[in-house]
Amino acid sequence: MDFKKITIIGVGLIGSSLALALRKKGYKGRITGLGRSEETLKMALELEIIDDYSTVHTEGVKDADLVVLASSVALYEQIVNNIKDHLKEGAIVTDVGSVKGDVLRTLTPLMPENVRFIAGHPIAGRECSGVKCATDDLFENAKCILTPDAGTDETALRQIKELWELTGARTVIMSPEEHDLTFAAVSHLPHIVAYSLINSILDINGEILRYGGGGLRDFTRIALSSPAMWRDICAHNRDEVLRTLKTFSSSLSRMISFVEESDWASLEKEFARAREARQLIESN
Amino acid sequence: MDFKKITIIGVGLIGSSLALALRKKGYKGRITGLGRSEETLKMALELEIIDDYSTVHTEGVKDADLVVLASSVALYEQIVNNIKDHLKEGAIVTDVGSVKGDVLRTLTPLMPENVRFIAGHPIAGRECSGVKCATDDLFENAKCILTPDAGTDETALRQIKELWELTGARTVIMSPEEHDLTFAAVSHLPHIVAYSLINSILDINGEILRYGGGGLRDFTRIALSSPAMWRDICAHNRDEVLRTLKTFSSSLSRMISFVEESDWASLEKEFARAREARQLIESN
Question: pTM of the full predicted structure?
Fold first, then answer.
């Protein structure tokens, strides 16, 4: 990997874990942290996650061969507007956001002529967030989705592929559209459903949540995730999130009808279909 | 505990784990296994979970001071009709089913005059089912709900309370109605939602389930549970399940409206409300 300097904007869980993983796998270049909170950046420096830091966008990206956007997706546009005139000629910008179509549509037109943008999404996360939760093996065996479009530079794509593979991730190439529908279904939708399930239990009786066993705990663990982050993901993948919500709503209505009609055979068939599919991912 | 002989009808996960837990905590009496599958009963005997077994209801309950119904709830009525004329005078019958109102309404009128019925529900389970998954610590620190009604014998209730406390469970007294609404909300509803979520992902695209990360895995683990068992639970707690499904459906519709209207502040508020409540059960 020929990046002499990498600037990571947003030293949260993903940004910090990326820095740690690169170090562990022998990356010898410089890693600069960039963000709004000096306290966080100082902590990252003390934990030897980054080599130096800046809170000034224009300063932090100077001479960087690679800039990684690892902040909230909602901040990308503003950040790129701040840094675009200060990027090194030939630099690559990449990101780690959970939505891709919207990011490509927004950022591609902002990139200077000699800067190449590669959109990416490592499928890794924990309910625990922030620099203090970073680990050097977060991406080990994780998938990292890269979503080139018609204008994507092949050389830059290969370099970002190598970057993620160095961290232990397996890269997968997908169109932005396929990515956004897939992750609306397998990630964004389950988060909304988990939040909604908790709220409906509260609506029934706020006192009863504590009677839930291990099943409810596991089921709703993702409801511990950051509301602001999930608000932003929904906002930036609105159409696909809506599409999956409506599909889920239909599936739920079907279940409700079977219960209403006491059609237990059909209800069991629905349960069995789901279980069979779920068993397949268990054995993966 | 003064039960000289306990007969457990259904040596699945719960029935077998109860036997193992009682033994571990020093129960000295006889434990008889009763069920339809001789293969299962033989295995339970070989694993020293039970002392002897029978596949004949009338034989197996003979002389038992306590009979534990640990089969599917759907079989209770038939089983009790088979055994009722063979129960020992003064025996206690109890159960471990996930629904209580329906069980009490069905079984109470069937009990002979000198036999007392205590309805119970240990909140313990695993996705793994059957005698091979039984453990002697399944009830350790678990809640066990007992649901007496107006006709319940206080002495028998106390004895069943002691039985569960011996296994390490903490007993909670609740009305059957309160139990059924509570567990419709915190257990039955989440199972239906998990099955439904998997099905909606299949409806979107059968191939994408494998892209789900650890969050989806945890979220849908309960969809590995037995479809037949959950069909029966829904059938025997129909009204409360329906009530919670409708509450959930309203909560979901609210979320869908916020996404449709791009009302991200309200969506975040919903997420935050859920997260706050979920954090409380995490710290319990």
Answer: 0.91
Residues of A in contact with B232 (CB under 8 A): 264
Mutate which of A73, A271, A273, A282 to test chain B, going by most B C-beta atoms within 10 A? Answer: A271
Contacts of A278 in chain B (CB under 8 A): 198, 209, 220, 223-224
- In the A/B pair of chains, how many CB contacts fall below 8 A? 313
| Interchain proximity A277–B203, CB inside 8 Å | no
Is residue A120 classed exposed, middle or buried when 0-12, 13-18 and 19+ CB atoms within 10 A define those classes?
buried
Is ipTM strictly over 0.95?
no
Using alpha carbons, select from B65, B279, B5 the residue that is nearest to residue A225.
B279
CA-nearest of B154, B221, B125, B163 to B21 is: B163
Architecture of domain B5-174: 3-Layer(aba) Sandwich (3.40)
Model pLDDT for residues A37-82, shown as the tens digit of each residue: 999 999 999 999 999 999 999 999 999 999 999 999 999 999 999 9
> What is the structure's pLDDT at A284?
57
> Which of A259, A262, A263, A283 should one mutate to test binding to chain B, selecting the residue with the greatest count of B CBs within 10 A?
A259
Q: Which of the residues in chain B have pLDDT under 50? A: none
Q: Give the right CATH number for B178-282 from 1.20.1250.20, 1.20.1260.10, 1.10.3660.10, 3.40.50.620.
A: 1.10.3660.10
Q: What is the pLDDT of residue A282?
A: 74
| Contact assignment for B125 to A251 by CB distance below 8 Å | no
Q: Which of A121, A126, A129 is nearest to A138 (CA)?
A: A126
Is residue B164 within 8 A of residue B143, CB to CB? The reply is no
Q: pLDDT tens digits for B155-177?
A: 999 999 999 999 999 999 999 99
Locate the domains of chain B by residue range: 5-174, 178-282
- CA angle, residues B217, B190, B160, in degrees to nearest 5: 115
Chain B nearest C-alpha distance from A214 (Å)? 8
Task: Kindly give, in sequence order, each residue whose CB lies less than 8 Å from that of residue A26, ignoring residues fewer than 6 positions away.
Answer: none
User: Residues 6 or more apart from A125 whose CB is under 8 A from it?
Assistant: A13, A14, A225, B213, B215
Strand partners, B92: B66, B116
Neighbouring C-beta atoms of residue B110, cutoff 10 Å: 16
A contacts of B190 (beta carbons < 8 Å): 197, 212, 215-216, 219-220
pLDDT of A283: 67
pLDDT in tens, B265-274: 999 999 999 9
Q: How far apart are CA A49 and CA A51, in angstroms?
A: 7
For B264-272, which contacts have Cβ atoms below 8 Å and span 24 or more sequence positions?
A: B264/A231, B264/A232, B264/A234, B264/A235, B265/A231, B267/A231, B267/A234, B268/A227, B268/A228, B268/A230, B268/A231, B270/A195, B270/A196, B270/A199, B271/A195, B271/A223, B271/A227, B271/A230, B271/A231, B272/A227
Interface touch A281/B253, C-beta < 8 Å: no
Q: Are A236 and A73 in contact (CB under 8 A)?
A: yes
